[in-house]
Amino acid sequence: MTMPDSRGEPARAVAGWEPIVRAIGPKVREVRQQLALSLQQLAARSDVSAAAIHKVERGDMVPTITTLLKLSAALGRPIGFFVDDGPEKPVAVHVRAAERPGPPPGWAPEAEGVTAAGLALSDERLRGAAVQADIDPGGSSGDTRPLRPGEELLLVVAGALIVEVAGERYRVQAGDTLHYPTDRPHSWHNPGVEPARAIWWMLRA
């Protein structure tokens, strides 16, 4: 007579938790970067070390309930956001023209004379984002934009922008691109008398 395997149900239950646990780190990183917080800034807010947060984001460490509660409070999200096991999302993210979101939080919080829209919805599974912006003459990002790990690729579609990156100054005209790290001081403005249009592709670290 074959005895039933009493370990089967717990094993299946643990296997069912794994996708939820694996998703915690990317969600923490996504919200932190949406808020334009560095690891050190989140560490100061949450009383969780920057090293521990980095390990959680990379999936190298599963946070304790206490740690997750601290991070949830610091990031302004309910703890359920990080452990939600809702329906599986489609592989691709399709955004229709009429449904474009606003630019990601922290993209250019001090911008003036700028009309911008996101070209992609935020998704913790994906590292890229994009923004299209129309910049009035004299419009700008403000003196500085939030520093965060990652990269931006700028394509000017019409007009021209002056972009400063770590003290270096570039005139980027229609058809030109500029690729730069976002952990260095960077800002831009439209120096012309005509509106400019540009697209930014952003890749988080």
The amount of helix comes to: 25-40%
Sheet with most strands: strand arrangement:
1-2-8-3-6
Average pLDDT taken over every residue: 85
Number of helical segments with 4 or more residues? 5
Rg estimate, integer Å: 21 Å
Structural class category: alpha+beta
Q: Which range does the strand content fall in? A: 25-35%
CATH architecture descriptor of the largest domain: Sandwich
Largest sheet: 5 strands, antiparallel
Uncertain parts: 1-14
- The overall strand count is 8
Question: Would you give the CATH topology of the largest domain?
Answer: Jelly Rolls
Per CATH, the class of the largest domain reads Mainly Beta
Element-level helix/strand string: HHHHHEEEEEEEE
Q: Quote the distance from N terminus to C terminus.
A: 56 Å
CATH homologous superfamily identity of the largest domain: Jelly Rolls
Shape: elongated
Number of domains: 2
InterPro entries: Cro/C1-type_HTH (IPR001387), Cupin_2 (IPR013096), Lambda_DNA-bd_dom_sf (IPR010982), RmlC-like_jellyroll (IPR014710), RmlC_Cupin_sf (IPR011051), TransReg_Diox_bact_type (IPR050807)
Keywords: DNA-binding
Protein name: Transcriptional regulator
Organism: Pseudonocardia asaccharolytica DSM 44247 = NBRC 16224
